[in-house]
């Protein structure tokens, strides 16, 4: 549950009765419409004059209130002209948190021509104060709280706030080193720590494997995972030996995530784990992602962070699919194959197309008997967002595009789906020229706007195609 701080800005001599009425309307809508995802924190009359924010004294009291409540984002609303310095004081104290500014529509003019609000004029002053201080913010529009435009802007802001909250301070566990020939998944641990307070938590692949081997087939934790696996996919095509190995691996990885407070995992998924443990971890990775533990292939730390951003944008409602950018459709110029070896989250599987089988690539090196563990089949169709985080010379960039996963068959092994975008040539060229890599994260739904705004708050350059 997020906590959002609501700041009701007012300036004398504008109509304080109108400001109080409007404040109460905003609080009522915010508290009712978004109660399932956010708690609204706001000043009462014991905190500020009339429960409004009119000067620096009020602003400092609100800062204390918000810090005590540990709010995740700030809603600055000019109910009348608003005091820009009071708003700026609060924004300065929460620099780095998502901030949205709302202007409000005008009430009828009083007899004698007195303007009761003049909100937009004050909003310009407030926005310029934040801009001058280089504090990033969103503008939600000129609204009444009952407007659909307000609800839509708040929906985006809540998703942005969730992205920022989960991105800052993320702890990414890596299981083993990256593949030696995959320089593409290198990362800058120092910059992650410096800019975003993130940490990479190293774990030995051998240690994970040895702990999994020690688990009994009758361990209640293992049995629970096997039973849960059977609910999501037909296990009859592989031996129980392999199912148990997969379940044990999932138990250990899940416990490591809890023990070390991890946000996600980058896993060395070939070929050592096949050689020395006897399964491919793809199905387990997809199941972890389904459970909200983002798991990326080939120890791709920035890939995990991209998945976290997408999953947060969905408010945890749908899991992403960690993909490779691959081939163009032989007949459709704007369609490409979104593919990976077998790590699709089971909830994304198009019914009737998925099977738990052996790895279509690794078996050539390790043999079929050590390669079981891939969930192969088609991803369900629908609108999707595809994105990828990279970093060069300390600058982080986020590629974002939207597309449509198609309901179209194909001859492929692995987890896959044909995806149509508006201009595949431009997508391919942008990926190449901007230094993006062959891994990306794809999630069902259109989350372009929340991702772009979150990137703005985080100081990440958004590149939208």
From TrEMBL:
Q: Which UniProt keywords apply?
A: Carbohydrate metabolism, Isomerase
Under the heading InterPro entries, the entry gives: Fuc/Ara_isomerase_C, Fuc_isomerase_C, Fucose_isomerase_N/cen_sf
Q: Does the keyword Ribonucleoprotein apply?
A: no
Q: Name one GO biological process term.
A: fucose metabolic process
Domain L-fucose isomerase C-terminal: residue ranges: 340-462
State one molecular function term (GO): L-fucose isomerase activity
Is the keyword Isomerase in the record? yes
This one is known as L-fucose isomerase
